[in-house]
Every structure is written in C-alpha cells, then in structure tokens.
Amino acid sequence: MKEREEDWTLVIKPSSGLFDLQLKEVWHYRDLLFLFVKRDFIAAYKQTILGPLWHFIQPIFTTIIFLMVFGKIANIPTDGIQPVLFYMSGITIWNYFASCLTATSNTFVANAGIFGKVYFPRLVMPLSIVISNMVKFLIQFALLVAVIIYFAVNGEAIHFGLSWLIIPLLVIWMALIGLGLGIIISSLTTKYRDFTVLVGFAVQLMMYATPIAYPLSFLKSQSYQWLIVWNPLTPIVEAFRYSLFGNGTFTTSSLFYSLGLTALVLLIGALLFNKVQRTFMDTV
Amino acid sequence: MSDIVIKVDNLSKQYRLGTVGTGTLSHDLNRWWHLIRGKEDPYLKIGEANDRTIKGESDYVWALQNINFEVKRGDVLGIIGKNGAGKSTLLKILSRTTSPTTGTVKAKGKVASLLEVGTGFHPELSGRENIFLNGAILGMTKTEVSAKIDEIIDFSGVERYIDTPVKRYSSGMYVRLAFAVAAHLEPDILIVDEVLAVGDIEFQKKCIGKLQNVSKEEGRTILFVSHNIAALANLCTRGIVLQNGSTVYNGLITDAISKYQGTINNRVEQDLELETARSGNGKALITACYLENNKQEHVEEVLCGEDIYVCITLKTKAKPISKVDIGFAIHDEYSDCISVYFTSYNNQYFEYKHEGYFTTKFKIPKLPLTEGVYNIRGRIEAQQELIDWPENFIASFRVLPGDFYNSGYLNLHRGSKFYIKPEVI
Hints:
The complex is a heterodimer.
Chain A: E1 10-12, H1 23-28, H2 30-45, H3 54-73, H4 83-104, H5 107-110, H6 112-115, H7 124-153, H8 167-188, H9 194-208, H10 225-229, H11 233-245, H12 252-276, H13 280-283
Helix pairs in contact in A: 2-7, 3-4, 4-7, 4-8, 4-9, 4-11, 7-8, 8-11, 8-12
Chain B: E1 4-16, H1 22-36, E2 48-49, E3 60-72, E4 76-81, H2 87-94, E5 102-107, E6 111-114, H3 127-137, H4 142-156, H5 171-183, E7 189-193, H6 201-216, E8 221-225, H7 229-235, E9 238-243, E10 246-252, H8 253-264, E11 278-279, E12 284-292, E13 298-299, E14 301-303, E15 308-316, E16 321-331, E17 337-342, E18 350-352, E19 356-364, E20 372-382, E21 385-390, E22 395-400
Parallel strand pairs in B: 2-3, 4-8, 4-9, 6-7, 7-8, 14-22
Antiparallel strand pairs in B: 1-3, 1-5, 9-10, 11-21, 12-13, 12-15, 15-19, 16-17, 16-18, 16-20, 20-21, 20-22
C-alpha cells in the first residue's frame, strides 16, 4: 500500500518548528475565543446588582488617592493637564496593561485543568484574556470620556482632534506588550514557579517607573531620568496623553524604540509559549 | 487513499517521578548543556518500564514504550490495561494535550476527544450557553452548534433546565448535557475515556447506542478506553492490551479481553505457600487449591453439570486451632464475585491439633455454571479472627458446555450466568 505524506492531516511529533504558531488554527477557533470573552464577562457579573459598573469604582478611587498624594501632598505638576483627567487617563491605560500582564502570566497554571483534558490552540486563552480586559478597558475609557465631557462643559479647555484616532493603536500596542510579557512569564513558570511570586509586586513597582502619577517632563535633568525614559511603556503612556489632551513628552525615536522592544517581547513570548505548550502538562 | 486513519509509530513517553525542585534544575541544565552541544538527551537512555508496584532504580520511567499500531476507518478500538498501564497517556498524546518523547502519530481527519465530559463547562452559564462553549472547546464553530442545538438538547433530556446555570444541575444532568454535546461533534476520530461511569442505566445504554451508531452508520473511528469489559465487548471491534507501557496484544477485541484477563487474573502459579501478598495472622496458611473430578484426577477444565471437587490444602502449625471456618469464592472472568461459601454457613468447623498439611474437599454436585473462565479466592477464619487471606486467586478453571439437564440439550443462551432446573408442577 502506498502512503503519501500529504494524506495525513495531523502529525504529532515530539517537537515542532520554532515559529509554528498555528495561527491558522487559532483563526479556526475564533468562535471559542469570543465565547471565552463572553464567558468571562457574563460570569463576572452574574448575581451582582451593579454589574459592569463596578469597573468605575477602581479608577475613581485611585484617581482620588493620586490627587491627594501626588497632587496635594507631593505637589507634582501635571503637564498643564487638568489633574483629575491627568491621573485618570494614566490609571485607565495602566490598568489595562497591568491586567493583561497579570492575567496572561497565569495562563498555563490557571488553565491546567482544561488544557489537560482537551486540545485547542493554547494561544486562544491569553488572547481571550487580552480581549476580555479590553472590554473592561472600554468601560473605564467611557468613564474617562464622560469625565472629560464634564470638564469641557464646565469651561475647561479640552483638546479634541484627529489625534484621538491613534488612541486605538496605542491601546492595542499596550495590549501586545502586556500579552508578550505575560506569555513569557507564563511559559517560564510552568515548571519553576519562582516568577509567579514576582509578578504581583513587579507590576506595582513598574507603575512607578512609568509616568502614570507624574509627567515625564517633570523629570527633566534628574539623574534617574534614564530609568523612566528607557521604559518602553513610557512613550506609549505619554503618547496616549498627548493624543487625549495635546500634552506629552515623546519623540519619534522613543516610539520606534518602544515598538521594536514590543516586537522583540512578542517574538520571545511566542517562541517560548510555543515550546512550552506542547509538554507543559507534564511539569505544571 | 488508504483506509488507515491513525498510524502510531514507535511512540514513547518518558516521565520523571518525584517533585520539581533544585534536583530537577540540575537535570534540566545538564540536558540543555547536551542540547546546545548537539548531543542526545542523556536522560532518554535511562528510564525503566513503568511498573508502579516495585521500587525503581531511576527517577525516569517510560509510561509508554515503542507503541506501534494502526487503526482503520470505522474501527472501534478498545484500549485495555490495568491502572497505570499507559492508556490515558496514550490518549493524551493522541488528543494532543501532551507531546510524545519520541515517535510519531499520524492521523487523517478531525480528532476530538471526550477525555472527561464537561470540560470547560462554566457553572455560572446556562445549559444553552455551555453547549456553545463546550462545542467550541471541542472544535465546533458557532454555526455548527446552532444547527444542532435542538438535537443536542433533545438527546440530553434536560430541556427543562436548559436556561438555568449548570451549577444548579445534578451531576447526572451535567454529564448528560456534556455527553450530548460531544456525541454530536461529528469528528472523524473520536477518543472516549471512561465517560460512561456516570449517568443512569438508561443514559449509559443511550451512549453506547450512540457510539455504535457513530461507528457503524457514519463510518467514524472510535478509540475507547474503559474498564467496563461488557461495554468494551459490546462496542469495540478491535482491542489493544497495554501492560506497563508496552503493547502486549493487538487484535480482535474478544482475544484482547481474554489476554487482558490473563494479565489481571494473575493466579499464583508457583507455590502458594511462598506467596507474600496475603493478610491474616498466619496460624494456618492456604498452600494449595485445585479441582478434582469424580475419578479424583486433577482437572482445570470441567463440564457443566459435572460433579466437581474444590480441594483446599492448609498448612497448620504445632499450636492447635479450633473452630476453623474455611471459605472460598468463585469469581467470573471479569473478576466479579459470583458466589461465596463458608463452612460456617453449614455449621461446619474444623479443628487442627498437629502441625502438617490437611486437605479439605468440597463437592459441588452438578456444577451449575455456564461456559467460561472462573477463578477461586480462599479465606480462612477462626472465631471471627482472620487466619489467612491470599490477595490473588488461588485457582482458576474453565467450564465447558455440558449436558446439565441430561436431556441432550445445551443451554447456550448468552445471557445465562448459571443454570437453574425448574420443575413444572
């Protein structure tokens, strides 16, 4: 009997190509992706009365705290942006990054149960997390827009222009860098859990190394300014504020630097994830 | 296009035992060091057959070793083996939840596994929402599920609860719903692992029927793992028997089942006296058990309807024991106990005053068992105290069809387990 290799539609081998990400398969499972998003969303608000409104609480309270600590006590300027808007915009975009990172960094360990029983492209899981958090981000962004409109109505000079169009790009960018870092961590922590301890507070500390509670312009001529400048998140946050309010400190080169780093992180993440997903069930 | 839909080639899977810690880190570094120098993984050379009962030399075991088999379209392949024989590892590799260490598997068509039903059900979502979610996890698209939703709900028989969160379901309803989704998957190759254990008889029958339908009428291939011999015999056409990670038999299901029973009914072949897998205080030991016919000849095959003698030999010690109660049980080929007898049921007790070997013969007139293989276990008690109880079977015998009724007719009805001789009045 003659066997032709192309007859086989599925070949299971000990190892696969480095970049064999099976994106085609991920596309085939797109319904699953959106069902996961829907599941996360529905499940989160079942048996709550306020439902998605709970997402307003966190940015509102954090903004109030920031106003008091950084605005009133530390007296840090806000780049000429209305302080409430300044803090709230930073918190909104930061929250998105932080939740993408912490949730995806847990992909393998948290889903070991389902991954161990049935096969679907593993990448569906972190992608669905990023999209679910996008929904949460949109809710918080809507709050931000509402507050902007409130200030505009009350006579505050508000910048509103074409620059708003690049906001979606910045958000996706933020998602990708969070996803990249998240899947790197999730791949590294299947066997040795050491890093999981780190993630929680590393994200917290990283916020202070990103211009969330202060503008980059405030750091001019400070000796530790390099730390903030080299943070790939800095240009994204500054660009986000710039497109919202017309005020922010970033250069084209800093944007390209950040973009390059994002691509690198995603590449390493994809590589590690692809390697680990095949055998992680044995070591998780 | 050839008819072979799955081809497993030299498949092996190695696992490391013990916990993950600094010890494993040094192995990982060593492995990585070999890898970057382009050398072979040093830990693949070691590793032992996976026998969980004995203490091994190394931390590495082969859960599967050099498995080769092919499955044709429309076959229902039963995978049989003791706990830890490698059945689930094999299915995990086939369903792609883990990768093999060496070897390849090639398959044609869509593979879906039903390793444990209800995977991915979310307790907060309603039955209907979970059908979509579960369907998607198993690889169906939304349109495919939508097209079959009515059929699925109908098959599950939980229509009344379909818009209630599944956390309110009984466990049986949960399984019904999950199996209903999986049964309507329509993959080319379906992998089923021990899912029929839950659910009531009615639903189990429905499941077996559905699987039979799927294989016979729709020409799909099924791989089925179960310890339920009856279900295997019913459903499968071919079987492979795994033992400690290797295939010991590959062929027709009936032969596979008898081969498997050969491996589980590991009757003590050597001296029963030296057997250590036994409990009891050891004041007396069962040292032999055999069957005799009317002519006092040892036999291993008897005819049904014949008089047989079960002979049990005890070795006693110098210390006298009294009120000894000798018991034995007959198990069928599936290791299910079908009858137990203790001499105390008949108010008979024995006394042993000297050291020595004593054989007791139990006559069973007109053996009422139907054709098949039977096994005997023995147990000795005295005054509510356990004297000796070997863990394994102490004897086995085969019953051949015989003229039980002395009428020239044989009772060959498959459902009969034993003979009765009613009198018409």
